[in-house]
Specification:
Length: 456
């Protein structure tokens, strides 16, 4: 029997029987007309329980799409980019969507917009798109990474190039669309930030750069909401790894997990941990047979890390893997073109407990697929946002929430309204402290997948 250790903000209380056989199912094939080649775009779950994502190409105008897919596999195109002349509405959405506190989705396009340098947009569940900002190179160019909404309600992100030194930026955007450049990279402090930011429990944002730094192999950095940046680690030894396109995930001990695309002891990428002060330890080095070029990691409800590799594996088409916090690797699936190839994006764990992801190629038309991985993990609930003050409105996502009888924040009871089978609205109650959110339903108690941070 495989022993699973609990780590991080996630709860083993949700884990059913251990050692269950995993099952990978292809849910949908991209055909070109409905999108093609989803890239650095993990799926995100909406308030309706469905999954939403982007494809970098294809669609009605061949410049990419926003799509919805049900958990059973029905795919609907919500928006095809380049509707407007000269693609002023954006083109090539490389990054994934994020669910905002208002229930809408926010994302970026790598190109297009009023100046051809990419955009930030908002889109509703029904597919109504609003362009919030068009980059102009001086304030950024080519946003590749998914946005994050800070506890202040603003959106934070990165551009791969542009800015004062043409080497990329970190930016802040208000919900109304006012953009502030927080930092322009200058190579010595990093270059080409392709990874998303994460807001850690200390309120600071952490991420990585693809290259640059004192040794040229990329960096780990932190930045405040006011724009003060500190380089935590310079990758300078190929045995650590190099070329980082993925962001970080934080565990409850305050440390972070991340992956490098290249190098490492075996030359095919690595998984590392890094402390908040910048000490890096390599947990795993891929050897091509078990995968190559790992993507963004997901810390799941069983306490283990899950992810994909773009290539390598038994068929050289990429893999899905599980990794314990101690560095023990299990290859869960080897893609074989017919069921997908080259998964550039990481996984998402939906509230049904299952994992969902995309491949950029392969499938029936070689335009990519959407797939599901079932590890037998139990359902749970998610909160949007994941932190806030007493009195802040919170949306709770889940499955089979109809008939819920109570909601509590770390044991403190909260008033709530059941909106649908997949959504509850509530507010952080007086006396609440940082801890898990619990929803009691006729089917049993559901716990939040991460600790809700009560801020002051």
């Amino acid at each position: 029997m495989k022993v699973r250790s609990c780590v991080g903000l996630l709860l083993c209380l949700l884990t059913p029987g251990l050692g269950q056989t995993q099952t990978v199912t292809t849910l949908a094939n991209f055909t070109g007309n409905n999108g093609s080649s989803p890239l650095f775009a993990p799926l995100v779950q909406g308030l309706d329980g469905n999954l939403y994502g982007t494809a970098s190409a294809g669609g009605a105008h061949s410049h990419g799409t926003v799509f919805k897919i049900t958990l059973s596999g029905t795919l609907t195109t919500l928006y095809s980019f380049c509707v407007k002349s000269n693609c002023t509405d954006g083109s090539a959405p490389y990054a994934g969507l994020m669910l905002g506190a208002d229930g809408n989705f926010y994302g970026t396009t790598e190109a297009g917009g009023a100046h051809g340098a990419g955009t930030v947009f908002k889109i509703t569940q029904r597919g109504t798109l609003t362009t919030l900002h068009s980059f102009n190179i001086s304030d950024g160019y080519n946003p590749y990474a998914t946005l994050v909404q800070g506890t202040d309600g603003n959106f934070y992100g990165t551009t791969e190039s542009g800015g004062a030194h043409i080497l990329g930026t970190v930016f802040k955007l208000t919900p109304q669309g006012t953009l502030s450049t927080l930092h322009s990279f200058n190579d010595t402090d990093g270059a080409s930030p392709e990874a998303p930011l994460i807001q850690a429990t200390d309120g600071t944002f952490y991420s990585t750069t693809y290259n640059g730094g004192s040794q040229g192999y990329g960096t780990v950095y932190k930045i405040t909401s006011g724009g003060t940046l500190a380089t935590l680690h310079n990758f300078g030894d190929e045995t650590e790894g190099a070329a980082i396109t993925s962001g970080l995930v934080q565990a409850s001990d305050g440390n972070f997990y991340g992956s490098t695309n290249l190098a490492g002891p075996n030359g095919y990428g690595s998984v590392f941990t890094v402390t908040p002060t910048g000490t890096v330890t390599v947990l795993l080095s891929f050897n091509a047979t078990d995968g190559a070029t790992p993507n963004e990691l997901l810390l799941a409800t069983d306490g283990n890390l899950y992810g994909t590799t773009i290539s390598g594996g038994a068929n050289t088409d990429g893999t899905v893997f599980e990794l314990t916090p101690q560095g023990s690797l299990s290859t869960l699936h080897n893609f074989s073109k017919s069921d997908g190839a080259d998964p550039f994006a990481g996984l998402v764990q939906a509230t049904d407990g299952k994992f969902y992801g995309t491949t950029s190629f392969g499938g029936s038309k070689n335009n990519g697929t959407v797939f599901r991985l079932d590890m037998g993990l139990a359902p749970f609930v998610k909160t949007v946002p994941m932190a806030g003050k007493v009195g802040v409105k919170v949306k709770i996502l889940g499955t089979s929430l109809t008939g819920a009888t109570s909601v509590n924040f770390n044991g403190v009871v909260a008033a709530f309204t059941v909106v649908s089978a997949t959504e509850i609205t509530t507010t952080v109650p007086n006396g609440a402290t940082t801890g898990t959110v619990q929803v009691t339903t006729p089917g049993g108690a559901l716990l939040s997948n991460v600790v809700f941070q009560v801020t002051h």
